[in-house]
Amino acid sequence: MSVSLYRVKFARTILLWQLATFVVVGALFCFKDLTWGVSALAGGLAAWLPNVLFMIFAWRHQAGHEVTGRLAWTFALGEALKVLVTVLVIILALGVFKAAFTPLGLAWLSVLIVQIVAPAVINNKG
Fold first, then answer.
1. How many Cβ atoms are within 10 Å of 30's Cβ, its own excluded?
2. Mean pLDDT, to the nearest integer, of 79-105?
3. Of 7, 22, 34, 122, which has the fewest beta carbons less than 10 angstroms from its beta carbon?
């Protein structure tokens, strides 16, 4: 298995764990109130969607290219895209759809925690 294929599978696994996290958190908040559940889903989406877009952006720009100085600019552009999409989704959720802040923030943080913790857990598995 090539290193590139391994990295794609690894990133896909982390994205699936993040997706599962915000869906479960959103479902748990639905028991309190439907508005809280939808707010939690919006918060999870605000953390997960930028990561998906970054991975797509990274996969498109790394296919068959040597590592050059352009790689740093591509990474910086991808990170700027992540921040922009995160801010836009949070503004839409809070401003337009009047989401509750507490479940939105907790779901957003839970997805970010999974992003930090999942690589260590996945690497220790095998």
1. 16
2. 96
3. 34
The two three-digit tokens of residue 125, written as one number: 């598995």
Which residues make Cβ contacts (< 8 Å) with residue 107, sequence separation at least 6?
Answer: 22, 25, 26, 29, 39, 40, 41, 42, 43, 44, 47
The three-class DSSP label of residue 57 is helix
Sole residue written with tokens 């599962």: 20
What stretches of the chain show up as alpha helix (H) in DSSP? 3-30, 34-62, 70-91, 101-125
pLDDT on residue 2 = 41
- Answer yes or no: are the C-beta atoms of 21 and 110 closer than 8 Å: yes
Radius of gyration for the chain, computed over Cα atoms and rounded to the nearest angstrom? 16
Contact 58, 78 (CB under 8 A): yes
Identity at 83, one-letter amino acid code? V
Q: How many CA atoms lie within 13 A of 113 on its CB side?
A: 10
Q: For the residues 64-86, what does the mean pLDDT come to?
A: 79
